[in-house]
Write the C-alpha coordinates for this entry.
Amino acid sequence: MADDAESEQATDAAAAGAADEGQPPAMSKSARKKLLKQERQAAQKAARKAAEKERRRADIERRRREWEEALAAAPSEEARAEMVEARRQTRRERVGRRAEERGARAERLRRAAEGAGQKVVLDLEFGDLMRPNEIHSLTQQIMYCYAVNGRSANPAHLWLTGCNGEMATHLQRIPGYDKWMIEKEAKPYLEAFEDSKENLVYLTADAETVLDDLDMSKIYIIGGLVDRNRWKGITLKKAVDQGIQCAKLPIGNYLKMSSSQVLTVNQVFEIMLKFVETRDWKTSFFHVIPQRKRGEAEAGNDGVDVSMNDDDAAEGAENQGDIAKVFDEEVDDDDVVDEELQEEDTDMAKKKQCIRHENGEAEDVSTRPAEDHSPGAAAETTTPTGGALPQAEQSKESNGADD
Protein backbone atom coordinates (compact mmCIF):
# COMPACT_ATOMS: atom_id res chain seq x y z
CA MET A 1 0.00 0.00 0.00
CA ALA A 2 2.79 2.39 0.93
CA ASP A 3 4.67 1.54 -2.26
CA ASP A 4 1.54 2.30 -4.32
CA ALA A 5 1.11 5.64 -2.57
CA GLU A 6 4.75 6.58 -3.10
CA SER A 7 4.55 5.50 -6.75
CA GLU A 8 1.44 7.61 -7.32
CA GLN A 9 3.02 10.62 -5.57
CA ALA A 10 6.08 10.25 -7.77
CA THR A 11 3.86 10.09 -10.86
CA ASP A 12 1.98 13.18 -9.74
CA ALA A 13 5.26 15.03 -9.18
CA ALA A 14 6.47 13.98 -12.63
CA ALA A 15 3.19 15.17 -14.12
CA ALA A 16 3.61 18.56 -12.44
CA GLY A 17 7.17 18.84 -13.75
CA ALA A 18 6.07 17.94 -17.27
CA ALA A 19 3.34 20.58 -17.11
CA ASP A 20 5.92 23.19 -16.07
CA GLU A 21 8.00 22.28 -19.12
CA GLY A 22 4.99 22.60 -21.41
CA GLN A 23 4.72 18.84 -22.02
CA PRO A 24 1.48 16.85 -21.69
CA PRO A 25 1.15 15.78 -18.03
CA ALA A 26 1.75 12.10 -17.25
CA MET A 27 -1.27 10.14 -16.09
CA SER A 28 -1.38 9.06 -12.44
CA LYS A 29 -1.55 5.37 -11.61
CA SER A 30 -5.16 5.59 -10.41
CA ALA A 31 -6.14 7.55 -13.53
CA ARG A 32 -4.51 4.93 -15.75
CA LYS A 33 -6.34 2.12 -13.94
CA LYS A 34 -9.62 3.99 -14.29
CA LEU A 35 -9.02 4.60 -18.00
CA LEU A 36 -8.16 0.94 -18.58
CA LYS A 37 -11.32 -0.11 -16.76
CA GLN A 38 -13.44 2.23 -18.88
CA GLU A 39 -11.82 0.95 -22.08
CA ARG A 40 -12.36 -2.65 -21.00
CA GLN A 41 -16.01 -2.00 -20.20
CA ALA A 42 -16.51 -0.20 -23.52
CA ALA A 43 -14.95 -3.15 -25.39
CA GLN A 44 -17.15 -5.63 -23.53
CA LYS A 45 -20.25 -3.59 -24.27
CA ALA A 46 -19.33 -3.37 -27.96
CA ALA A 47 -18.73 -7.13 -28.07
CA ARG A 48 -22.11 -7.85 -26.47
CA LYS A 49 -23.83 -5.50 -28.90
CA ALA A 50 -22.13 -7.13 -31.89
CA ALA A 51 -23.01 -10.62 -30.64
CA GLU A 52 -26.66 -9.63 -30.18
CA LYS A 53 -26.75 -8.09 -33.65
CA GLU A 54 -25.30 -11.26 -35.15
CA ARG A 55 -27.80 -13.40 -33.22
CA ARG A 56 -30.68 -11.31 -34.53
CA ARG A 57 -29.34 -11.49 -38.08
CA ALA A 58 -28.94 -15.27 -37.88
CA ASP A 59 -32.47 -15.60 -36.48
CA ILE A 60 -33.91 -13.53 -39.31
CA GLU A 61 -32.04 -15.60 -41.89
CA ARG A 62 -33.26 -18.84 -40.30
CA ARG A 63 -36.89 -17.74 -40.40
CA ARG A 64 -36.48 -16.49 -43.95
CA ARG A 65 -35.07 -19.86 -45.00
CA GLU A 66 -37.87 -21.75 -43.27
CA TRP A 67 -40.44 -19.60 -45.07
CA GLU A 68 -38.81 -20.21 -48.45
CA GLU A 69 -38.68 -23.95 -47.80
CA ALA A 70 -42.34 -23.99 -46.79
CA LEU A 71 -43.34 -22.17 -49.98
CA ALA A 72 -41.20 -24.44 -52.12
CA ALA A 73 -42.87 -27.48 -50.58
CA ALA A 74 -46.37 -26.23 -51.44
CA PRO A 75 -48.08 -28.69 -53.85
CA SER A 76 -49.46 -26.00 -56.17
CA GLU A 77 -49.56 -22.30 -56.99
CA GLU A 78 -52.97 -22.10 -55.37
CA ALA A 79 -51.56 -23.55 -52.15
CA ARG A 80 -48.70 -21.06 -52.25
CA ALA A 81 -51.16 -18.20 -52.71
CA GLU A 82 -53.19 -19.45 -49.75
CA MET A 83 -50.05 -19.54 -47.58
CA VAL A 84 -49.19 -15.97 -48.55
CA GLU A 85 -52.71 -14.77 -47.82
CA ALA A 86 -52.79 -16.62 -44.48
CA ARG A 87 -49.55 -14.95 -43.44
CA ARG A 88 -50.88 -11.55 -44.45
CA GLN A 89 -54.10 -12.16 -42.52
CA THR A 90 -52.08 -13.02 -39.42
CA ARG A 91 -50.21 -9.73 -39.82
CA ARG A 92 -53.44 -7.77 -40.22
CA GLU A 93 -54.82 -9.31 -37.03
CA ARG A 94 -51.63 -8.57 -35.11
CA VAL A 95 -51.58 -4.98 -36.30
CA GLY A 96 -55.21 -4.63 -35.28
CA ARG A 97 -54.51 -5.94 -31.78
CA ARG A 98 -51.60 -3.57 -31.36
CA ALA A 99 -53.73 -0.65 -32.49
CA GLU A 100 -56.31 -1.58 -29.85
CA GLU A 101 -53.60 -1.84 -27.20
CA ARG A 102 -52.19 1.56 -28.13
CA GLY A 103 -55.65 3.08 -27.93
CA ALA A 104 -56.28 1.56 -24.50
CA ARG A 105 -52.89 2.76 -23.28
CA ALA A 106 -53.56 6.30 -24.49
CA GLU A 107 -56.92 6.27 -22.69
CA ARG A 108 -55.31 5.15 -19.42
CA LEU A 109 -52.67 7.87 -19.64
CA ARG A 110 -55.34 10.46 -20.46
CA ARG A 111 -57.35 9.52 -17.37
CA ALA A 112 -54.19 9.63 -15.24
CA ALA A 113 -53.44 13.15 -16.46
CA GLU A 114 -57.01 14.24 -15.69
CA GLY A 115 -56.65 13.31 -12.03
CA ALA A 116 -56.89 9.54 -11.73
CA GLY A 117 -53.12 9.04 -11.54
CA GLN A 118 -50.66 9.62 -8.71
CA LYS A 119 -48.51 12.66 -9.55
CA VAL A 120 -44.83 11.76 -9.81
CA VAL A 121 -42.12 14.23 -10.82
CA LEU A 122 -38.71 13.36 -12.23
CA ASP A 123 -36.42 16.21 -11.17
CA LEU A 124 -33.98 16.82 -14.05
CA GLU A 125 -32.20 19.84 -12.59
CA PHE A 126 -28.96 17.93 -11.99
CA GLY A 127 -27.79 17.84 -15.60
CA ASP A 128 -24.75 20.04 -14.91
CA LEU A 129 -23.50 17.58 -12.26
CA MET A 130 -23.46 14.54 -14.54
CA ARG A 131 -21.00 13.25 -17.09
CA PRO A 132 -22.17 12.55 -20.66
CA ASN A 133 -22.42 8.79 -20.06
CA GLU A 134 -24.45 9.43 -16.90
CA ILE A 135 -26.87 11.68 -18.78
CA HIS A 136 -27.22 8.93 -21.36
CA SER A 137 -27.95 6.39 -18.62
CA LEU A 138 -30.57 8.67 -17.07
CA THR A 139 -32.19 9.12 -20.48
CA GLN A 140 -32.54 5.34 -20.76
CA GLN A 141 -34.09 5.21 -17.31
CA ILE A 142 -36.63 7.88 -18.25
CA MET A 143 -37.54 5.88 -21.36
CA TYR A 144 -38.16 2.86 -19.17
CA CYS A 145 -40.29 4.92 -16.77
CA TYR A 146 -42.51 6.13 -19.58
CA ALA A 147 -42.81 2.67 -21.09
CA VAL A 148 -43.75 0.82 -17.88
CA ASN A 149 -46.14 3.64 -17.00
CA GLY A 150 -47.98 3.09 -20.27
CA ARG A 151 -48.26 -0.63 -19.61
CA SER A 152 -49.53 -0.15 -16.07
CA ALA A 153 -53.23 -0.67 -15.38
CA ASN A 154 -53.01 2.33 -13.02
CA PRO A 155 -50.48 4.71 -14.57
CA ALA A 156 -49.09 7.72 -12.77
CA HIS A 157 -49.42 11.32 -13.93
CA LEU A 158 -45.76 11.63 -14.85
CA TRP A 159 -43.89 14.96 -15.02
CA LEU A 160 -40.43 15.93 -16.23
CA THR A 161 -39.29 19.24 -14.73
CA GLY A 162 -36.12 21.27 -15.09
CA CYS A 163 -35.57 19.71 -18.50
CA ASN A 164 -32.90 21.88 -20.12
CA GLY A 165 -29.47 21.77 -21.73
CA GLU A 166 -27.85 18.42 -22.47
CA MET A 167 -30.64 16.55 -20.71
CA ALA A 168 -33.24 18.03 -23.05
CA THR A 169 -31.00 17.35 -26.05
CA HIS A 170 -30.69 13.67 -25.15
CA LEU A 171 -34.43 13.30 -24.62
CA GLN A 172 -35.21 14.94 -27.97
CA ARG A 173 -33.18 12.22 -29.66
CA ILE A 174 -35.61 9.54 -28.48
CA PRO A 175 -37.85 8.49 -31.41
CA GLY A 176 -41.40 9.65 -30.75
CA TYR A 177 -40.48 11.70 -27.66
CA ASP A 178 -42.52 14.68 -28.88
CA LYS A 179 -45.63 12.46 -28.84
CA TRP A 180 -45.16 11.16 -25.32
CA MET A 181 -48.25 11.56 -23.15
CA ILE A 182 -46.32 13.16 -20.32
CA GLU A 183 -45.91 16.63 -18.79
CA LYS A 184 -42.66 18.30 -19.88
CA GLU A 185 -41.53 21.46 -18.12
CA ALA A 186 -38.34 23.40 -18.70
CA LYS A 187 -38.90 25.26 -15.43
CA PRO A 188 -38.16 23.64 -12.04
CA TYR A 189 -40.87 21.89 -10.03
CA LEU A 190 -41.06 24.75 -7.52
CA GLU A 191 -42.34 26.97 -10.33
CA ALA A 192 -44.45 24.29 -11.98
CA PHE A 193 -46.22 23.63 -8.66
CA GLU A 194 -45.89 27.02 -7.01
CA ASP A 195 -49.50 26.80 -5.79
CA SER A 196 -48.99 23.32 -4.32
CA LYS A 197 -45.64 23.57 -2.56
CA GLU A 198 -47.09 22.16 0.66
CA ASN A 199 -47.91 18.93 -1.23
CA LEU A 200 -44.42 18.35 -2.61
CA VAL A 201 -42.56 15.36 -1.13
CA TYR A 202 -38.97 14.66 -2.19
CA LEU A 203 -38.04 10.97 -2.04
CA THR A 204 -34.50 10.51 -0.74
CA ALA A 205 -32.76 7.66 1.06
CA ASP A 206 -31.22 10.17 3.49
CA ALA A 207 -34.59 11.31 4.88
CA GLU A 208 -35.62 10.34 8.41
CA THR A 209 -39.33 10.09 7.62
CA VAL A 210 -40.42 6.70 6.27
CA LEU A 211 -43.16 6.65 3.65
CA ASP A 212 -45.92 4.34 4.88
CA ASP A 213 -48.46 5.01 2.13
CA LEU A 214 -48.93 7.03 -1.05
CA ASP A 215 -51.25 10.03 -0.77
CA MET A 216 -53.09 11.05 -3.93
CA SER A 217 -53.00 14.67 -2.80
CA LYS A 218 -49.19 14.61 -2.66
CA ILE A 219 -46.72 15.18 -5.49
CA TYR A 220 -43.75 12.82 -5.15
CA ILE A 221 -40.39 13.87 -6.55
CA ILE A 222 -37.66 11.48 -7.70
CA GLY A 223 -34.20 12.96 -8.15
CA GLY A 224 -32.98 12.47 -11.71
CA LEU A 225 -29.33 11.95 -10.85
CA VAL A 226 -26.87 9.26 -11.91
CA ASP A 227 -23.77 10.14 -9.91
CA ARG A 228 -22.12 6.89 -8.77
CA ASN A 229 -22.31 8.25 -5.20
CA ARG A 230 -20.28 11.40 -5.92
CA TRP A 231 -23.09 13.66 -4.67
CA LYS A 232 -24.32 11.75 -1.65
CA GLY A 233 -27.00 13.62 0.31
CA ILE A 234 -27.57 16.26 -2.37
CA THR A 235 -31.31 15.57 -2.77
CA LEU A 236 -31.94 15.81 0.98
CA LYS A 237 -30.04 19.09 1.17
CA LYS A 238 -32.00 20.44 -1.78
CA ALA A 239 -35.35 19.54 -0.20
CA VAL A 240 -34.37 21.03 3.18
CA ASP A 241 -33.07 24.23 1.58
CA GLN A 242 -36.31 24.61 -0.38
CA GLY A 243 -38.46 23.94 2.67
CA ILE A 244 -40.35 20.99 1.22
CA GLN A 245 -41.16 17.63 2.78
CA CYS A 246 -38.88 14.65 2.23
CA ALA A 247 -39.30 10.93 2.89
CA LYS A 248 -37.79 7.56 2.01
CA LEU A 249 -39.35 4.34 0.82
CA PRO A 250 -39.81 1.74 3.61
CA ILE A 251 -37.38 -0.69 1.99
CA GLY A 252 -35.51 -1.17 5.27
CA ASN A 253 -38.65 -2.65 6.83
CA TYR A 254 -38.54 -5.58 4.42
CA LEU A 255 -34.94 -5.94 3.23
CA LYS A 256 -31.65 -5.15 4.91
CA MET A 257 -29.85 -3.00 2.35
CA SER A 258 -26.10 -2.51 2.52
CA SER A 259 -24.40 0.88 2.58
CA SER A 260 -23.77 0.54 -1.16
CA GLN A 261 -27.49 0.74 -1.87
CA VAL A 262 -28.29 2.35 -5.22
CA LEU A 263 -31.77 2.55 -6.71
CA THR A 264 -32.24 3.96 -10.17
CA VAL A 265 -34.96 6.39 -11.21
CA ASN A 266 -36.87 3.65 -13.01
CA GLN A 267 -36.59 1.26 -10.04
CA VAL A 268 -38.04 3.81 -7.62
CA PHE A 269 -40.77 4.73 -10.11
CA GLU A 270 -41.69 1.10 -10.80
CA ILE A 271 -41.83 0.33 -7.07
CA MET A 272 -44.32 3.17 -6.68
CA LEU A 273 -46.40 1.94 -9.62
CA LYS A 274 -46.50 -1.55 -8.18
CA PHE A 275 -47.54 -0.22 -4.78
CA VAL A 276 -50.42 1.71 -6.37
CA GLU A 277 -51.55 -1.57 -7.90
CA THR A 278 -51.06 -3.86 -4.88
CA ARG A 279 -50.94 -1.51 -1.84
CA ASP A 280 -48.22 -3.84 -0.57
CA TRP A 281 -44.63 -2.59 -0.16
CA LYS A 282 -43.05 -6.04 0.17
CA THR A 283 -44.61 -7.24 -3.06
CA SER A 284 -43.54 -4.02 -4.76
CA PHE A 285 -39.90 -4.30 -3.65
CA PHE A 286 -39.65 -7.97 -4.58
CA HIS A 287 -41.21 -7.27 -7.98
CA VAL A 288 -38.56 -4.68 -8.87
CA ILE A 289 -35.36 -5.68 -7.04
CA PRO A 290 -33.48 -8.43 -8.96
CA GLN A 291 -34.10 -11.87 -7.48
CA ARG A 292 -30.42 -12.73 -7.26
CA LYS A 293 -29.97 -9.69 -5.01
CA ARG A 294 -32.69 -10.61 -2.57
CA GLY A 295 -31.87 -14.31 -2.36
CA GLU A 296 -33.87 -15.97 0.39
CA ALA A 297 -35.67 -12.77 1.31
CA GLU A 298 -38.56 -13.76 -0.94
CA ALA A 299 -39.14 -16.82 1.22
CA GLY A 300 -39.83 -14.52 4.16
CA ASN A 301 -36.51 -14.75 5.98
CA ASP A 302 -35.57 -11.65 7.92
CA GLY A 303 -32.23 -9.89 7.91
CA VAL A 304 -31.26 -10.75 4.34
CA ASP A 305 -28.69 -8.36 2.93
CA VAL A 306 -29.45 -6.87 -0.47
CA SER A 307 -26.61 -4.97 -2.09
CA MET A 308 -27.45 -2.83 -5.10
CA ASN A 309 -24.26 -1.71 -6.82
CA ASP A 310 -23.70 0.52 -9.84
CA ASP A 311 -23.94 -2.36 -12.29
CA ASP A 312 -27.36 -3.32 -10.91
CA ALA A 313 -28.44 0.31 -11.04
CA ALA A 314 -27.75 0.48 -14.75
CA GLU A 315 -29.03 -2.99 -15.55
CA GLY A 316 -32.66 -2.35 -16.42
CA ALA A 317 -32.15 1.03 -18.01
CA GLU A 318 -29.30 -0.07 -20.27
CA ASN A 319 -31.14 -3.10 -21.61
CA GLN A 320 -32.44 -1.95 -24.96
CA GLY A 321 -34.24 -5.26 -25.45
CA ASP A 322 -36.39 -4.68 -22.38
CA ILE A 323 -37.15 -1.12 -23.44
CA ALA A 324 -38.12 -2.32 -26.92
CA LYS A 325 -40.52 -4.85 -25.41
CA VAL A 326 -42.36 -2.35 -23.26
CA PHE A 327 -42.67 -0.07 -26.28
CA ASP A 328 -44.15 -2.98 -28.29
CA GLU A 329 -41.27 -2.76 -30.75
CA GLU A 330 -40.14 -6.37 -30.57
CA VAL A 331 -39.24 -8.06 -33.84
CA ASP A 332 -42.35 -9.18 -35.67
CA ASP A 333 -42.17 -12.71 -37.07
CA ASP A 334 -43.79 -11.48 -40.26
CA ASP A 335 -41.31 -8.65 -40.79
CA VAL A 336 -38.67 -11.07 -42.01
CA VAL A 337 -40.87 -12.38 -44.84
CA ASP A 338 -42.10 -9.08 -46.28
CA GLU A 339 -39.75 -9.30 -49.25
CA GLU A 340 -40.68 -12.92 -49.87
CA LEU A 341 -44.37 -12.02 -49.87
CA GLN A 342 -43.78 -9.30 -52.41
CA GLU A 343 -41.64 -11.62 -54.55
CA GLU A 344 -44.37 -14.26 -54.48
CA ASP A 345 -46.93 -11.70 -55.65
CA THR A 346 -44.64 -10.68 -58.52
CA ASP A 347 -43.88 -14.28 -59.53
CA MET A 348 -47.53 -15.26 -59.54
CA ALA A 349 -48.45 -12.18 -61.60
CA LYS A 350 -45.76 -12.98 -64.17
CA LYS A 351 -46.83 -16.60 -64.47
CA LYS A 352 -50.47 -15.62 -64.97
CA GLN A 353 -49.41 -13.14 -67.66
CA CYS A 354 -47.46 -15.88 -69.46
CA ILE A 355 -50.50 -18.18 -69.37
CA ARG A 356 -52.68 -15.45 -70.84
CA HIS A 357 -50.20 -14.88 -73.65
CA GLU A 358 -49.98 -18.62 -74.40
CA ASN A 359 -53.79 -18.78 -74.61
CA GLY A 360 -53.89 -15.86 -77.03
CA GLU A 361 -55.42 -13.57 -74.43
CA ALA A 362 -52.62 -11.00 -74.22
CA GLU A 363 -53.69 -7.53 -73.20
CA ASP A 364 -53.21 -4.46 -75.40
CA VAL A 365 -50.09 -2.86 -73.87
CA SER A 366 -51.03 0.55 -75.26
CA THR A 367 -54.23 0.61 -73.21
CA ARG A 368 -52.79 -0.89 -70.01
CA PRO A 369 -51.79 1.56 -67.24
CA ALA A 370 -48.15 1.67 -66.23
CA GLU A 371 -47.22 -0.73 -63.46
CA ASP A 372 -46.08 0.60 -60.10
CA HIS A 373 -43.10 -1.44 -58.87
CA SER A 374 -42.70 0.37 -55.57
CA PRO A 375 -42.62 -1.77 -52.39
CA GLY A 376 -45.97 -0.36 -51.33
CA ALA A 377 -47.55 -1.22 -54.65
CA ALA A 378 -46.19 -4.76 -54.54
CA ALA A 379 -47.82 -5.18 -51.17
CA GLU A 380 -51.17 -4.06 -52.57
CA THR A 381 -51.25 -6.75 -55.27
CA THR A 382 -54.64 -8.42 -55.70
CA THR A 383 -54.85 -11.96 -54.35
CA PRO A 384 -56.27 -14.91 -56.27
CA THR A 385 -59.49 -14.49 -54.32
CA GLY A 386 -59.88 -10.93 -55.50
CA GLY A 387 -59.12 -9.17 -52.18
CA ALA A 388 -56.61 -6.33 -52.03
CA LEU A 389 -53.74 -6.91 -49.63
CA PRO A 390 -52.72 -4.04 -47.34
CA GLN A 391 -49.23 -2.64 -47.37
CA ALA A 392 -46.98 -5.19 -45.69
CA GLU A 393 -44.86 -2.83 -43.68
CA GLN A 394 -46.93 -1.18 -40.97
CA SER A 395 -45.77 1.78 -38.98
CA LYS A 396 -45.05 1.11 -35.32
CA GLU A 397 -45.31 3.40 -32.35
CA SER A 398 -41.91 4.65 -31.21
CA ASN A 399 -42.02 4.05 -28.84
CA GLY A 400 -29.18 6.40 -9.98
CA ALA A 401 -31.91 7.81 -7.89
CA ASP A 402 -32.26 7.99 -4.16
CA ASP A 403 -35.21 6.04 -2.88
